[in-house]
Amino acid sequence: MTSGTKMAPSTDAVPFRIKARENADLVRHYLEHLKEPMSFDVFPDLRVYDELLRQHSGIPLTQARVFEIGVGERPYRLLALRAMGVDVRGVDAEVPVVRLSLRALARVYRRNGLERFVKTLVRRSLFDWRDNRAFRQTLTRRGLRMPAHEPGRVLVADAAELDLEPGQLDLVYSEDVFEHIAADGLRRLVPRMARWLKPSGIAVIRPNVFTGITGGHLVEWKPRTLLAPNGRERRTEPWLHLLSEDFKTNTYLNRLTRADFRALFSEHFEILAEDVTLPDLGRDLLTPELRERLAHYPDEELFSNQVRFVLRPRAGGSQPV
Questions:
Q1: What spatial distance separates the first Cα and last Cα of the chain, rounded to whole Å?
Q2: Do the Cβ atoms of 202 and 312 come closer than 8 Å?
Q3: Strand pairing partners for 155?
Q4: Fewest beta carbons less than 10 Å away: which of 19, 58, 160, 164?
């Protein structure tokens, strides 16, 4: 890899005690998830993509050529789009495991290392069956079928190094990924995105911004745990990742602010919209004392959880990188 980009951004070089603590929290999170009513639905996101394409590009999602950056180990959005008949491809730095097999696990180990291998094996063996079943049931309720396995639709690569054919895509989208890409990688990726899109195309990018209460990516501050009706006991204080110079977590984070992302995108795109998915998440936890300690962060940063940027390439396009 080049320029410091990570090939296993879901892990990072932190002390063993931090890895052990966060992995234990992750298992606990999965176990708590098993007690909840089963549900899994990516279609609200797809409905947003369809509405935005109709509004800004004049076409429905089903007629678009689509590319996903960061499909993840469970590429449910991409699979749902394929089930709808959408021409979609994607890329991820880590090997997705759609079907558990020795060959797939071997690829994870070779590409992304031992820790990612163990996490994949544990989650796929013990927990993913429930979300997979829920996903299939969601497809069935919509009259759709699980699409055939098409390995060529997902590239395992550094997105910042991809050379896709220019001017061919109607939509590029990414969810909770851009915060895991090194800043120098983003500076290469963003102009590439602009070049891949048609002049009428759009990019819909939603990073989990570092300055929001969920931006530290600790399990105990995930949106799901914050929104749980009974809450949970937490070991760390809100916004610890902004308050402590020694903060470390077991995932790579570029620590870009919302303003940083805005400036980065503005170089190559017109920003059509900038909306926060969970605009008030954590507001009840921001005490006067805590607000004073965080005084150099404006509210738009502290409540910047999952900011959806809707982008259109600037006229004239981007020059080759």
A1: 17
A2: yes
A3: 91
A4: 58
> What is the rounded distance in angstroms from the CA atom of residue 137 to the CA atom of residue 214?
30
Which residues touch 278 (CB under 8 Å, ≥6 apart)? Answer: 214, 223, 305, 306
Could you tell me the strand order of the sheet in which 307-313 lies? 154-156, 87-92, 65-69, 169-175, 197-206, 307-313, 269-276
Integer Cα distance of 141 and 138 in angstroms = 5
Containing 22, the helix (H) or strand (E) segment is helix 16-35
Q: Please enumerate in sequence order all residues whose Cβ is within 8 A of that of 183, keeping only pairs 6 or more positions apart, or say none.
A: 254, 256
Beta strands in the chain (DSSP E): 65-69, 87-92, 154-156, 169-175, 197-206, 269-276, 307-313
Whole-model pTM above 0.90? no
- Spatial CA neighbour of 154 closest among 81, 205, 204: 81
* Contact in structure between 160 and 186 (CB atoms under 8 Å): yes
- What tokens does 273 get? 């919209």
pLDDT in tens, 53-92: 999 999 999 999 999 999 987 889 999 999 999 999 999 9
Whether the Cβ atoms of residue 223 and residue 29 lie closer than 8 Å to each other: no
- Residue in 291, 222, 296 with CA at minimum distance from that of residue 259: 296
Assigned CATH topology for domain 39-93+145-313:
Rossmann fold (3.40.50)
Per residue, the 3-state secondary structure of 228-248, as one string, reads: CCCCCCCCCCCCHHHHCCCCC
